[in-house]
Amino acid sequence: MIKLGVNTVLFKAYSLREACRAIGKAGYDGIEISAIKGMCEHLNLDDWKKDKVEILSITDEFGLELLSTEVASLDRDRLLKAFEACAEIGIPVVNIGPGGKSDDEVSLKQSVETLNSLAELAAQYKVTLCVKAHVGAAIYNTPTTLYAMEQIDNPWFGIDMDPSHIHRAGEKPEEALPSVLSRVRHVHIRDCKGLGPSPGEPANQACGRGDINLFGYFKAMVEGKFSGPVCLEVIGPDLDLVEASIIAAESYGYMNACLKILGAR
Predict the structure, then answer these.
(1) Residue 3: which H helix or E strand, with range?
(2) Are 200 and 210 in contact (CB under 8 A)?
(3) CATH code, 229
(4) Half-sphere exposure for 121 (CA within 13 Å, toward CB)
(5) What is the mean pLDDT of the chain?
(6) Is the predicted pLDDT of residue 1 greater than 90, yes or no?
(7) Which of 48, 70, 112, 158 is geometrically suited to a Cys-Cys bond with 85, CB 3.0 to 4.6 A?
(8) Is 263 exposed, middle or buried (0-12, 13-18, 19+ CB in 10 A)?
(9) Residues contacting residue 26 through CB under 8 Å, at least 6 positions apart
(10) pTM of the complete model
(11) What are the b/e assignments for 167-205, b being 16+ CB within 10 Å?
(12) What is the CA radius of gyration of the chain?
């Protein structure tokens, strides 16, 4: 079954407990716990052992699974801490960006070499490392994603397929997804108005408010028998608790309805 979650970066102005309380009340199955240094560290990788019991206690209290974490860094030492923490806490997926720059063959090759090396490290901890196509990065669209898939033959490496980045690359995400779905292990999801380069104001990233055919995207997921986590990732300025909760709840209602119509929930 596809499990729905929220990246806690949406609640970056609040504690993990406050975030989980709101996410649980909205109906989600779990969370993607943010470990983005300098932005939102609900998972503090420099002191995770001290926080492990509290993290597990909070998620258990609100009936939420730890679906993934976003580290958003290619720093080997930081990712080593992330893999160790995830193995101990029980977080199956670590999400990062590809780095590099678009339309540069040398940069793309360097990015893939780095990802390959990091995937080997993730394999030692039996944690899946996922990367997503990202606006402005070396891997930014479907062709560059397929290149990474071809070059990295490691079962602990996967694709984090974010429709908003594929949309901003000028593609239709619902049409692009089937070609990469065999290696997709995680989905970051949000809506987007226009072609960016940014995804827009947080409120317009709520599922159903933008220009992306997210129903078609979920249809492609279900038809392709995807069964991993789908986590709402909304970025931007700090929101108050009401604003963040509305975005989370509205997005859950949209995604849950799509999956019910498709017979997948």
Answers:
(1) strand 3-7
(2) yes
(3) 3.20.20.150
(4) 21
(5) 97
(6) no
(7) 48
(8) exposed
(9) 6, 245, 248, 249, 252
(10) 0.96
(11) bbbebebbebbeebbebbbbbbbbbbeeeeeebbebebb
(12) 17
Query: How many domains in the chain?
Result: 1
Q: Hey, CA dihedral for 239, 241, 243, 246, is it positive or negative?
A: positive
Q: If you search the block for the tokens 């891997």, which residue do you land on?
A: 139
The pLDDT tens digits of the residues spanning 221-232 come to 999 999 999 999
Which tokens in the block code for residue 264?
Answer: 């997948």
Residues whose CB is less than 8 angstroms from the CB of residue 213 and which lie 6 or more positions away in sequence, other chains included: 172, 173, 174
SS3 23: helix
Q: What is the pLDDT of residue 111?
A: 98
Segment 141-161, tens digit of pLDDT: 999 999 999 999 999 999 999
d(CA 177, CA 168): 14
Secondary structure (DSSP) of 128-150: EEEE---TTSSS-SHHHHHHHHH
Range of the domain at 199: 3-261
- pLDDT value of residue 167: 97
CA distance 253 to 90: 27
